[in-house]
Write a structure and sequence with these properties.
alpha/beta; FAD/NAD(P)-binding domain; Enolase-like, domain 1; 3 domains; 5-stranded mixed barrel; 25% strand; globular; binds nicotinamide-adenine-dinucleotide
Length: 484
């Protein structure tokens, strides 16, 4: 992929975006759609050392992860689930390198698609590291070794994303002790695998490798399992994952990990003392940090907090006029690709002089495990702590004909509405296709729907989405396919 800058010799832009992950590429595309002369600077290289767009999310995050999870789910279903349908399959085997290649082909194709869209919109795509010099200037260090240069822009959008936090006592070598990128590029199945952290990332990786047959142990320092989602959903998730064979050790803080002769020796502490585990591979999934190191020259005076996040106001504006920080770089919401995409579009529209808005209250969250978890709005515990009067409707997915037909009966849909106004305040799902189902709840909340609106909306039968209808009917004990 040629550096478009080199061929055009442009140095003055309306907007320069640093970072071509979901936040950055969306922002660059919307800027260009709105007629702004736009450049996007990105330094990602794929496994072959080639340039590719899409950032962590595409290349070693959710897209890579769900692609492998789909393969793992198929393998698991063929081995353990399709017998229920009267289908028998024998000699099923998993070709891990072929699975990884399939994932790489998909992310390569999607990366090329972003390049094509950039080209279509005449966005100058620059393969380089960008560094903010001041509110109007970016220093460009090309990865091909050519000379540094300085580009000028009226607006600068920082979108460099985040990277895994490395633990000093579990040094990643990406052979035995792996970060999340290496964990999505294993060439063979580890017999025994440990993961530090039972957060979103740890659980998603565990869902892949345990389904392919690795004995998987999650070591989580916190006593509480998954503290972000509604706690009823977290309890249900813990029960389901445990039944699936995941070994989740809570209150287990890893204190050291070292490579032995052929195994990794992991030491962790819990309330019973210190324990030692010997595993074939260890994945470190202990959180992420914003990529702000070397992003701005000291003289630029870009304001960061003590954890490296960039200070922004409610419009993603940094302390420097005309400079914005979006996606994982700010603390306006969780580290989610679609939050970054929305901020990218929002900021681009502001650069073009439009007054758009962004509604963080209806931002959906998804955990791509099997079954999936998805939610929008407030949890029951948060609302009760705030003293908001609420009512709760819950419908188990096993009471829908569709869940029975597809043999995915685990999980539930939970709706929380205001006890007096009936306004929807939160929707929480664990179950098959939760990531798709949540869109209905997001739309309902975006349009300020009440639970009665949902109860009076016709849902196709038989579908999983009927669970919404039924959960809304559950408020008045009026469910059709279950007695309450
Ligand atoms: P996380 O902070 O959600 O989880 C990391 C966990 O590691 C924590 O629970 C922490 O207690 C534990 N931990 C840290 N040190 C430990 C130690 N020494 N021993 C045992 N446990 C230890 O981080 P994550 O899962 O890496 O995710 C980071 C961010 O990326 C989050 O904001 C997450 O939402 C986002 N993300 C989102 C998705 C998605 O949208 N599906 C996927 C992956 C990550």
């Amino acid at each position: 992929m040629p550096n478009r800058l080199a061929s055009k010799q442009l140095t003055q832009y309306d907007v320069i975006v640093i970072g071509a992950g979901p936040a950055g590429y969306s922002s660059a595309i919307r800027c260009a759609q709105l007629g702004l002369k736009t450049a996007c600077v990105d330094n990602w290289r794929n496994k072959k050392g080639q340039r590719t767009l899409g950032g962590v999310h595409l290349n070693s995050g959710c897209v890579a992860s769900i692609t492998l999870l789909e393969s793992a789910k198929l393998f698991h279903a063929l081995n353990h689930e399709i017998g229920k349908h009267g289908i028998h399959a024998e000699n099923i085997s998993a070709d891990i390198p072929a699975m990884i290649q399939h994932k790489d082909d998909i992310i390569d194709a999607l990366g090329h698609k972003i390049s094509d869209i950039f080209a279509h919109h005449h966005i100058d795509s620059i393969h380089a590291s960008g560094r903010l010099l001041n509110a109007r200037q970016i220093e460009i260090t090309p990865l091909d070794g050519t000379a540094q240069s300085v580009l000028n822009a009226k607006h600068i959008i920082l979108a460099t994303g985040s990277s895994p936090i490395h633990l000093p006592y579990a040094k990643v070598d990406n052979e035995f002790i792996l970060d999340s990128f290496a964990a999505l590029n294993l060439t063979s199945l580890p017999k025994k695998l440990a993961i530090i952290g039972a957060g979103v990332n740890g659980l998603e990786l565990a869902s892949i490798w345990s389904r392919l047959g690795a004995e998987t142990i999650l070591l989580e320092a916190q006593e509480t399992f998954l503290s972000l989602p509604d706690q009823q959903i977290s309890r249900e998730a813990y029960r389901i994952y445990s039944e699936q064979g995941l070994d989740m050790r809570l209150g287990a803080r890893v204190i050291s990990a070292k490579k032995g002769k052929s195994k990794v020796i992991v030491e962790y502490q819990d309330q019973d003392g210190t324990h030692t585990l010997r595993v074939d591979k260890l994945i470190v999934a202990s959180g992420r940090k914003p990529n702000t190191e070397n992003l701005a020259a000291a003289e630029a005076n870009l304001l960061l907090d003590e954890n490296g996040y960039i200070h922004v106001d409610e419009n993603c504006r940094t302390n420097l006029p005309g400079v914005y920080a979006i996606g994982d770089l700010n603390l306006l919401g969780p580290m989610l690709a679609h939050k970054g995409i929305e901020e990218g579009v929002f900021v681009a529209e502001h650069c073009a002089g439009q007054r758009s808005t962004i509604n963080y209250d209806t931002l959906p969250s998804v955990i791509y495990t099997e079954p999936e978890i998805a939610w929008v709005g407030q949890t029951e515990q948060a609302l009760r702590t705030m003293g908001v009067p609420i009512k709760v409707g819950v419908f188990p997915l096993n009471a829908t004909a569709r869940a029975q037909a597809i043999c995915k009966t685990e999980g539930l849909i939970k709706i929380i509405a205001h006890a007096e106004t009936d306004a929807l305040l939160g929707v929480h799902i664990i179950g098959a296709q939760a990531s798709e189902l949540i869109a209905e709840a997001v739309l309902a909340m975006e349009f300020s729907a009440s639970s009665e609106d949902l109860a009076r909306t016709i849902h196709a039968h038989p579908t999983l989405s009927e669970g919404f209808h039924e959960a809304a009917l559950a408020f008045k004990k009026m469910t059709m396919h279950l007695t309450l």
